[in-house]
Design brief:
single chain; alpha+beta; Protein Transport Mog1p, Chain A; 2 domains; 17-stranded antiparallel sheet; 9 helices; DUF3558 domain-containing protein
Length: about 450
């Protein structure tokens, strides 16, 4: 992001992009050397054969940073928060992220500032490269791209500009198999980003911000040391044996094997998302599909879909019960008015059914979504089970197909379709396991 900043302010800021520059008598000591000495030694990871990727969620990344360290960098506050997400969770691709922010943080000596810390990891294999080989290729490509955008050397702009984002030189580090850092100044302030390759994983840690009073930015050494300390811990987390890492938290109560057993193979996941705040939420999702054996050129279809769990902790029994009853009335109202939607998309709802044996109260609803302007498109059907359990509500949904599929035109072939009763039976089985695992 490019911003227009006063030349005088940036001229001083550019010095902060140079290692060892910008420290004043009140600045904290440079911890970067201590961080590097405490880092694991560089030892290349083997790349032979297929590489098993460990499960990883945004919550696991957040947990890799000790609370005391995180609060010293981004404290909790009214104007802050945490975000965690798992963007991909298949056997061949994993991506997760975690971040904290505080826009009115007391950074010391009466100075109020904005601070943000973000972490992301990813790994992927392709048809031609295993995950380690792919990581090496992407890391080298990204490093060259980051080198090309350097426009500040020895505290001076080298591109002849006086405004716009500024990027410092790459500084080699010793985390993982390969690593370096780059500092930059933009509209979000001064930040340092550490890039690490650890086996099949590409790790990125950014820390920085700006101040509302006093010095415009934190010191360059401060943000570099902070990003390095976090990168050290995240690298150690991602170096763990893939076979010994398990998904933690509510989403860990159901495995891909459980989903396959309830529905059919093959299931991948979970992908996990969560938000903190007065009302805490977490979402888990598994992709389900069935492989179809076929000859080259044969037309075939597969049954499958997505099983999703959305847990909301309302903080008290009364609030949870109110929301549960509100949702029940909402679906009754939707059905009474003939569905909801517009000329592009319309959703109809079957009668809501009360369920027993799940939590304090539960109900199920089947919906069908069509596109009025595209009558040739198959309707999309979904089954929802909502459960009230203490201070929490949990929604279990499955959208997709449970029957049919196979070689088109073969004897007995039927197009994929949703059997709501079969889906509900599978969901009820998984819901019972999930609810039993809640603490």
């Amino acid at each position: 992001m490019v911003g227009v900043v006063l030349v005088g302010a940036l001229a001083g800021g550019w010095l902060l992009l140079r290692g060892g520059a910008g420290r004043g008598p009140q600045d904290p000591p440079d911890l970067s050397e201590r961080v590097r000495r405490g880092s694991p030694s560089r030892s290349p990871s083997p790349a032979a054969g297929a590489v098993k990727l460990r499960p990883v969620t945004g919550d696991q990344l957040c947990a890799a940073v000790p609370d005391s360290l995180r609060k010293s960098l981004v404290s909790d506050g009214k104007y802050g928060g945490r975000d965690a997400a798992t963007q991909a969770a298949s056997a061949t691709e994993k991506r997760a992220s975690c971040g904290w922010r505080n826009s009115k943080m007391d950074v010391g000596d009466g100075v109020i500032g904005y601070r943000t810390l973000t972490i992301s990891v990813e790994a992927e294999s392709t048809d031609s490269q295993n995950a380690v080989e792919h990581a090496k290729k992407e890391f080298d490509s990204d490093e060259k791209a980051n080198e090309r955008r350097v426009n500040v050397r020895d505290g001076r702009r080298t591109d002849g500009k006086t405004t716009g984002s500024a990027f410092g030189e790459l500084k080699p580090l010793t985390y993982g198999d390969a690593s370096y850092s780059q500092s930059s100044i933009g509209l979000s302030g001064l930040k340092a980003t550490v890039y690490v390759r650890q086996g099949p994983w590409l790790i990125e840690v950014s820390y920085g911000g700006s101040n509302r009073s006093g010095a415009k930015y934190p010191t360059g050494d401060e943000v570099r040391a902070a990003a390095g300390k976090v990168a050290d811990r995240v690298t150690a987390e991602m170096a763990k044996d893939a076979g010994k890492v398990k998904i933690t938290g509510p989403c860990g109560t159901i495995t891909a094997g459980n989903v396959e057993s309830a529905f059919f193979p093959t299931a991948e996941g979970p992908s996990v998302g969560g938000t903190d705040g007065r009302v805490q939420q977490v979402t888990c999702a598994w992709k389900i599909s069935e492989a179809v054996e076929h000859e080259p050129g044969q037309e075939y279809t597969t049954r499958g879909g997505t099983f999703r769990v959305h847990l909301v902790d309302w903080g008290d029994d009364e609030g949870a019960a109110f929301q549960f009853d509100r949702d029940a009335k909402k679906y009754d109202r939707y059905r009474a008015k003939g569905g909801i939607g517009n000329s592009v998309s319309h959703t109809d709802f079957e009668a809501r059914r009360q369920l027993s044996g799940l939590g304090d109260k539960a109900f199920a609803v089947v919906s069908t979504t069509t596109r009025p302007g595209e009558p040739e498109e198959e309707p999309r059907r979904e089954v929802l089970i909502e459960v009230l359990i203490g201070e929490r509500t949990v929604e279990f949904t499955f959208g997709g197909t449970t029957t049919g599929g196979g070689i088109v035109g073969a004897p007995g072939y039927r197009p994929p379709a949703l059997d709501p009763s079969a889906a509900q039976a599978a969901m009820t089985r998984l819901a019972g396991k999930f609810l039993a695992g809640l603490k």
